[in-house]
């Protein structure tokens, strides 16, 4: 069964890459707020954040998701929906990203990880292995009223036990 999902062009919002990261984050947040204000995107009942149907994230080797890196101040942003960084530990140095409250307001969040180089980050994100795991951004992805699903290949799941995979 092949169904085509119609995408209204005005609902596809791209990032303005001709301005600074700070300006791009402000512009993008403004556009998302307009979509919420006009009810194109629903608002979360728990917060004022947009409630996207799906947020798709890739896990980084260090446990980062989106452009939220371990021990970075952007992890603590609670007021803004979109934030920026100018000191990314991996290229490119300037990025914009949704904040954790926006990610955690989604109806569905999918985290994708592939490769042996992601196995330790997957373990830190999903297993109770000590205080070091608390600063892992992927571990902070916990949709309040939504579902979190991990998609792992065999190599990324190498360090997990069967009980970890069932939870």
TrEMBL record:
GO biological process: carbohydrate metabolic process; pentose-phosphate shunt
Domain of life: Eukaryota
Pathway(s) it belongs to: Carbohydrate degradation; pentose phosphate pathway
Domain Glucosamine/galactosamine-6-phosphate isomerase: 5-150
GO MF terms, alphabetically ordered: 6-phosphogluconolactonase activity
Species classification: Eukaryota, Viridiplantae, Streptophyta, Embryophyta, Tracheophyta
Family from the record: Belongs to the glucosamine/galactosamine-6-phosphate isomerase family. 6-phosphogluconolactonase subfamily.
Protein name as catalogued: Glucosamine/galactosamine-6-phosphate isomerase domain-containing protein
InterPro entries: 6-phosphogluconolactonase_DevB, 6PGL, Glc/Gal-6P_isomerase, NagB/RpiA_transferase-like
Pfam families in the record: Glucosamine_iso
Entry's transmembrane regions: none
């Amino acid at each position: 069964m092949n169904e085509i999902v119609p995408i209204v062009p005005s609902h596809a919002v791209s990032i303005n890459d001709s301005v600074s990261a700070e300006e791009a984050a402000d512009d993008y947040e403004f556009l998302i707020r307009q979509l919420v204000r006009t009810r194109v995107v629903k608002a979360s009942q728990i917060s004022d954040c947009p409630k996207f149907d799906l947020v798709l994230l890739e896990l980084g080797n260090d446990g980062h998701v989106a452009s939220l890196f371990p021990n970075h101040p952007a992890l603590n942003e609670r007021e803004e929906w979109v934030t920026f960084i100018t000191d990314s530990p991996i290229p490119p140095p300037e990025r914009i990203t949704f904040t954790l409250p926006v990610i955690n307001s989604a109806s569905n969040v999918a985290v994708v990880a592939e490769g042996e180089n992601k196995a330790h980050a997957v373990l830190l994100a999903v297993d109770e292995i000590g205080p070091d795991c608390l600063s892992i951004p992927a571990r902070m992805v916990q949709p309040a009223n939504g579902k979190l699903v991990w998609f792992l290949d065999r190599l990324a799941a190498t360090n997990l036990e069967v009980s970890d995979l069932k939870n």
